[in-house]
Amino acid sequence: MDAMSSYAPASAVILDRDGLDALVRCLAGQGRTVIGPTVRDGAVVLAELAGADELPFGWGSEVEAGRYRLVPRADGSAFAHTSGPQSWKAFLHPQREKLWSTDRDLNVVPEPAARPSYAFLGVRPCDLRAIAVQDRVLAGGHHPDDGYRDRRTGAFLVAVECTEPGATCFCVSMGGGPAADAGFDLALTEVIDEAGHRFVVRVGSAAGADVLHRIAHRAADEATRTAAGDAVDAARDRMGRAMPPVDLRVLMGESLAADRWDDVAARCLTCGNCTMVCPTCFCTTTEDTTDLTGDHAERWSVWGSCFDLDFSYLHGGPVRASSRSRYRQWLTHKLSTWYDQFGSSGCVGCGRCITWCPVGIDITEEAAALQMERSARDTEPEGAPR
Fold it and tell me: Nearest 5°: phi and psi at 361?
């Protein structure tokens, strides 16, 4: 098996469904706010869990470009669904955060940093990579975000390896995969067969080992370890999408004048949904508010989007006024110039931007179209009209 395989070593253990509930209660008993997937309003969303019974047992999801549907599953699986509209950035990098308040005499009161102790249950491998990306952006670099760093420090991550990739997933073509290889405290792989419903558990940190020591478990048998590894390996070959096998960084740089941008601009609503659901998009803006008397004012940090006209506003108007220029900015930054700033791609292949685009624009399809246009351009005879 390759380095991204989910092969569970001999030290792996097994939790049953009661053990999973014990894990949730142990983490909550340590004073942590346990966040995990649950079913609300026709979707799998991330919310605080009181126990494992609130996980989406018996629910899966069907996704396509611009389409998401919950579907019942007969096997009672808890983690056989694809990513919902939220990612973990909603908790680590919240959509709205008060920075400070002031009164009429300009006595500024900084907002105390929120320091929740989080435990995230059900973090997919693509989202582990997304958290690592946001760590580089928001916790490191020249301008760290103190609020993000406070929330991220000490957060306990329970990863869940993927055995049911969705039709919009393309993590393998972005250098990832359905196996959790780093960045977790505990990693679970769900196995359901004639031997029962259980979870293979691997330890990724000292904190993970300490928590596992506190809950009942048993040593993993060879058959269960093999079944878990085979399920994750099979998922790697069943990705619903794939990026074209080219250097995307170079492709974007050589496609700034491509005609394809006009095609996507004719469909794009510039609603910003793709940036809101993206687990790595991090841009914010500020909002100043005041009460009717003028005695109290507040400054808030809120999520921003490069699809907003005001995002590139300078004296005289926005720099990127057209939907063509704004979509091009988003895609080229995500797949190319992100490397210049942060040393990696800004895309982890989760597929949320495809699923939750109201008109079904597909980032993998757009990259493939740009590659086809570049190839056609490269084969044109010199001096041929375009």
Answer: -70, 135
Q: Which residues pair with 287 in a beta bridge?
A: 300
Q: Which two tokens stand for residue 105?
A: 């005499």
Last residue of a domain, one of 193, 208, 236: 236
- The DSSP symbol for 59 reads E
- d(CA 345, CA 50) in angstroms, rounded, equals 36
Are 128 and 55 in the same domain? yes
CA 230 to CA 224: how far, in whole Å? 10
Whether residues 54 and 149 fall in one domain: yes
Residue 130 scores a pLDDT above 70: yes
Evaluate whether 181 touches 125 at the Cβ level (below 8 Å).
yes
- Find the angle CA(306)-CA(279)-CA(22) to the nearest 5 degrees: 155
Per-residue pLDDT of 331-351, as tens digits, reads 999 999 999 999 999 999 999
What's the CA angle centered on 43, arms 133 and 349, to 5 degrees? 30
Cα separation, 188 vs 201, whole angstroms: 5
- Asked if residue 8 belongs to a domain, the reply is no
Contact between 332 and 345 under an 8 Å Cβ cutoff? The reply is no
Q: Rounded distance, CA 248 to CA 258, Å?
A: 15
Residue 49 CB-density burial (10 A; 0-12 exposed, 13-18 middle, 19+ buried): buried
Q: What whole-number distance in Å separates Cα of residue 303 and Cα of residue 148?
A: 13
Tens of pLDDT, residue by residue over 189-207, are 999 999 999 999 999 999 9
Q: How far is CA 119 from the centre of its chain?
A: 16
Total of domains in the chain? 2
Evaluate whether 79 touches 66 at the Cβ level (below 8 Å): no
